[in-house]
Amino acid sequence: MTSSAASYNRIRIGSAPDSWGVWFPDDPRQVPWQRFLDEVARAGYEWIELGPYGYLPTDPARLTEETSARGLKVSAGTVFTGLHHGPAVWEKTWAHVAEIAALTRAMGADHLVVIPSFWRDDKTGVVLEDRTLTPEQWRHLTTQTERLGQEVGDRFGLRIVVHPHADTHVDTEENVSRFLDGTDADLVSLCLDTGHYAYCGGDSVKLIETYGERIGYLHLKQVDPEILAEVVANEVPFGPAVARGVMCEPPAGVPALEPVLAAAQRLDAELFAIVEQDMYPCPPDRPFPIAERTRRFLRSCGA
């Protein structure tokens, strides 16, 4: 083992349905779930996320059988929330979260990735609400996220990790810092997605070094700087930006992943680092070779 490989022994690498162009529970343009499981294992990954709820089997016994047969384990589930709308949306939110949290727990995972709702539709680009939160909405967002962290922890034994995401209200360095400063570290951690953070102008290494104790999970991806510049200049919504190839195969884009992994390794924590290359929609034969090359690249970095 090289010294570099030994240095990243606290980071567990995985992948996700997202890297196979899967954004929805059911879509004819997406690869069947059996093919995803076959290929993610063949590409050299041991850990996966559940992806959109309903894409993979939701019966824990069936899913355990399917993943175990391929040597795979689940690292996290994912939920979408609009908690800045306040207590009025709590019951609807909890019904959605509880179903996914139960499956996540049954699969032996410890994390629930929480993605804030989009201010414009990721498929159509239709503006759904103001892109800037009011002070009251910020209070709702922070207090209701803390409530979610408490409830998910108490009822399911899971840790929530909030995912800053393009075209949501938790996106830029300023908004991510405001969110972290406004929430309790014991209840709310961050899922740092290196691609989304770069997409929104942030520096992942700086964030890890500044808020290290809040980093609970990583998504590894890169953006193509030239396409990103066009996307920003023309205010292209996230979905069409992905279709243009704004998220690219490493190591062709930014940020460089080895410094991110090195900064994460210096934290006093074991972390999942899940590869997520947004590619919806994409030809069914495209994801596997990219996933295989990406796994090889990360091994060359020592991960």
Describe this structure in words.
This is Inosose dehydratase. It comes from Streptomyces wuyuanensis. Pfam families: AP_endonuc_2. By secondary structure, this protein is α/β, with parallel strands linked by helices. It has a single domain, classed as TIM Barrel, CATH 3.20.20.150. The chain is 41% helix and 16% strand. The strands form 2 sheets. It has an 8-stranded parallel β-barrel with strand order 1-2-3-4-5-6-7-10, surrounded by 5 helices. The chain has a two-stranded antiparallel ribbon with strand order 8-9. α3 links the parallel β2 and β3. The protein is globular, with a radius of gyration of 18 Å. The relative contact order is 0.16.
Précis, in short:
The protein is an alpha/beta fold and 303 residues long. The chain has helices at 3-7, 33-42, 60-69, 90-106, 135-156, 173-181, 194-199, 204-210, 225-233, 238-243, 257-265, 287-301; strands at residues 11-15, 47-49, 73-81, 111-116, 159-162, 189-193, 215-220, 222-223, 247-248, 271-275. The chain has one domain (3-301): Divalent-metal-dependent TIM barrel enzymes (TIM Barrel).
